[in-house]
Design a protein that fits this description.
Helix content is 34%, strand content 19%. Strand 8 and strand 9 form a beta hairpin. It has a 4-stranded antiparallel sheet with strand order 2-1-8-9. Strands 4-5-6 form a 3-stranded antiparallel sheet, covered by helices on one side. The N terminus is likely disordered. The protein has 248 residues and is an alpha+beta fold. The protein has a single domain, classed as Cyclic Phosphodiesterase, Chain: A, CATH 3.90.1140.10. InterPro entries: DUF1045. It holds the Pfam family DUF1045. This is DUF1045 domain-containing protein.
């Protein structure tokens, strides 16, 4: 991992849930997406072991995972934001550490593979603790966020937002927060064909058996960084929940 001291400020940052290093959930995510969260995606990612070419050809797998591979294996708590002028990466990390110290560790409810619109994701049975953590992240980190441009807001509104989502976009710069928050870990890009989507869901449900149907600990808030819109997001800092900076 590159120290934040070694990079110039800029780009976008997001506060995410990401699996703990070395755990089974991290291994599953890295294998399925063909990259881990802390490295740049390879030019030619390799399909995971156990995925036969007959069930899902490598080119089809690469196309299905292209978008989530760009963003990394994570569940969003604070949506990506560009920092205000004068806010540097050290300040963002400091704010995140303070926030993490104020939150207790909790448990991620059992996950299952589900369809969300036209894409597939891992979704928990319930999200009470996740929603509380997401709200805390939103309220703590928003003062560091540069407001989205009118063009960015109009692009969001092209998705046929509800009136409630439209109000959240105006207030928070993102429409799927607070009451509209729905936690998920994205596994594929958009798959328009329902039959193909169901087939892929069956394949994924089989591959994900080691990580589904049981809880997972949440002991960190993870900061991801994207230098520019064409670059992938990378995990750059893990802040331990329940630990003050002095004790972490």
């Amino acid at each position: 991992m590159i120290s934040f001291m070694d990079r110039q400020p800029g780009g976008r940052y997001g506060v995410y849930f990401a699996p703990e290093r070395g755990g089974e959930l991290e291994r599953f995510g890295a294998a399925w997406l063909g990259r881990d969260n802390e490295s740049v995606p390879p030019a030619a990612p390799v399909p995971p072991d156990g995925l036969s070419p007959e069930a899902l050809p490598p080119d089809e797998w690469r196309a299905a995972t292209e978008s989530p591979r760009h963003y990394g294996f994570h569940g969003t708590l604070m949506p990506p934001f560009a920092p205000l002028p004068g806010v540097d990466e050290a300040g963002i990390v400091d704010r995140l550490e303070t926030l993490a110290g104020s939150l207790a560790p909790f448990v991620l409810a059992p996950l299952s593979v589900r369809e969300i619109g036209s894409f597939l994701a891992l979704v928990p049975e319930e999200q009470v603790w996740l929603a509380e953590a997401a709200e805390a992240c939103l309220r703590s980190m928003t003062p560091l966020r540069r407001p989205p441009s009118p063009e960015e807001n109009e692009a969001r509104r092209a998705s046929d937002l509800t009136p409630a989502q439209d109000r959240l976009l105006d207030e928070w710069g993102y429409p799927y927060v607070l009451a509209e928050f729905r936690f998920h870990i994205t596994l594929t890009g958009r798959i328009k064909d329902p039959a193909r989507r169901r087939r892929l869901a069956d394949i994924l449900s089989g591959l994900a058996v080691p990580v589904t149907g049981r809880p997972h600990p949440v002991r960190e808030l993870c900061l991801f960084h994207q230098p520019d819109r064409s670059a992938p997001f990378r995990l750059i800092h893990r802040a331990r929940l329940g630990n003050t900076k002095e004790n972490s």
